[in-house]
Amino acid sequence: MPWLSIRRRLLFNMCQRIIRNPFLCFNILFLTIIIVILTFRTSNIQQKCSLDQNIAQQQNISYKSSLNKPVIFIGGMPRSGTTLMRAILDSHPLVRCGEETRVIPRVLNMRAAWKKSTLEWNRLMAGGISESMIDSAIRAFVYEILLQHNQYADVLCDKDPFVLKYASYISSIFSNAKFLLLIRDARAVIHSVVTRKVTITGFNLSDYRQNFKVWNKGMETMIDQCTLVGKDKCLHVYYEQLVLQPKKTIENILKFLNLTWVDSVLHHEELVGKKISLSKTEHSSDQVIKPINLEALTKWIGHIPDDIKNEIDTLAPMLKKLGYDTQSDVPTYGVADQLVLSNMNNLKENAEFWDAKAKAYARHLPNDTSLFQNHTNN
Ligand SMILES: *[C@@H]1O[C@H](CO)[C@@H](O)[C@H](O)[C@H]1NC(C)=O
Ligand SMILES: *[C@@H]1O[C@H](CO)[C@@H](O)[C@H](O)[C@H]1NC(C)=O
Ligand SMILES: *[C@@H]1O[C@H](CO)[C@@H](O)[C@H](O)[C@H]1NC(C)=O
Ligand SMILES: *[C@@H]1O[C@H](CO)[C@@H](O)[C@H](O)[C@H]1NC(C)=O
Ligand SMILES: *[C@@H]1O[C@H](CO)[C@@H](O)[C@H](O)[C@H]1NC(C)=O
């Protein structure tokens, strides 16, 4: 760069004229150049740093800064009232659950598979992928999905039936998570799976025997997980009690969740399409548009094959353990509240209105069904 050398020579000559020491002049010039270069570079680095900081701060807003929000996980075997439960909680002004995320149980399942395989786990550890690194990445993923899906609600909530299988792990990465385990008579669950043709991994639409076994295994795991995290973090919610005595049952649930009572939780149907959004690919949407009712309580009666009835305590011992009457063909679940009886009247008197509404929310699959066939995988 000739202009630089000319200028340097000029400066050098000027300096020599003033100081009359060529060596000192050379040093001064050299130092000046170094200082100029350094100043320029530092300001550049500072700029870049503050840019990175800005990005980090923006990212912080989305999850780290609010990492302590309470999170509710609603689970249980599919067809056990998990959608009704989440619609009820969605009616609380502080909570938002929303539709099934589907990705949360899958990510938890994937992490469980890594951990289960000694070979894979050892490879991860040997490769410098530590357990705490995995935990914090899983936590970030789950939290980010919940935060954005729940529109930054005060109390986050996830309804994905199979999350309950991972309750103790979730509890270890979310210190303020609480769990609601929905429990429902297996006979009603299986009748619903079969008649509504819900495809769930493990269930077979024409094999009652297998379905009871699968239900039993799933319930065993979830009850165990619930016990592991403890009574203060995991609550058993019986579907039958929820629909028969909603006030008492929901009061108990809100107390457990440390949420104040609001009357809107008894009238979730008024918020459907407003605060409550329902997915047209979920099986229960056309049921939870209605006020809390008893329509699905005893539909199964008279539809369980005789041979299965006789074997029920061996096929699904959990049913009796959970307090269900497995001997009676027509078990009673309890007395219905006046509110529920008047809801039933409303449904009968305005049948056309409710049928039309149910049709509007009927399950409607996207055209490429291959991607959406399975209601819940794992
Ligand atoms: C991110 O949030 C944490 C916790 O609130 C805070 O300690 C940290 O300084 C924040 N980082 C940035 C870059 O804002
Ligand atoms: C759906 O589940 C069946 C097993 O019930 C499985 O074979 C199939 O691959 C699953 N499909 C998708 C798209 O996940
Ligand atoms: C479901 O059960 C029926 C009857 O037991 C059997 O024939 C069929 O192969 C089963 N289907 C699957 C996918 O396992
Ligand atoms: C319950 O919520 C109140 C505020 O709504 C809070 O002050 C209190 O610490 C909470 N209690 C528990 C046990 O989380
Ligand atoms: C799906 O199929 C229906 C009828 O077969 C058609 O009217 C609609 O345009 C299709 N939607 C898409 C996104 O392809």
UniProtKB/TrEMBL annotation:
<keyword id="KW-0812">Transmembrane</keyword>
<comment type="similarity">
    <text>Belongs to the protein sulfotransferase family.</text>
</comment>
<keyword id="KW-0808">Transferase</keyword>
<dbReference type="GO" id="GO:0005794">
    <property type="term" value="C:Golgi apparatus"/>
</dbReference>
<feature type="transmembrane region" description="Helical">
    <location>
        <begin position="21"/>
        <end position="40"/>
    </location>
</feature>
<comment type="function">
    <text>Catalyzes the O-sulfation of tyrosine residues within acidic motifs of polypeptides, using 3'-phosphoadenylyl sulfate (PAPS) as cosubstrate.</text>
</comment>
<keyword id="KW-1133">Transmembrane helix</keyword>
<keyword id="KW-0325">Glycoprotein</keyword>
<keyword id="KW-0472">Membrane</keyword>
<keyword id="KW-1015">Disulfide bond</keyword>
<dbReference type="InterPro" id="IPR026634">
    <property type="entry name" value="TPST-like"/>
</dbReference>
<dbReference type="Pfam" id="PF13469">
    <property type="entry name" value="Sulfotransfer_3"/>
</dbReference>
<dbReference type="InterPro" id="IPR027417">
    <property type="entry name" value="P-loop_NTPase"/>
</dbReference>
<dbReference type="GO" id="GO:0008476">
    <property type="term" value="F:protein-tyrosine sulfotransferase activity"/>
</dbReference>
<protein>
    <recommendedName>
        <fullName>Protein-tyrosine sulfotransferase</fullName>
        <ecNumber>2.8.2.20</ecNumber>
    </recommendedName>
</protein>
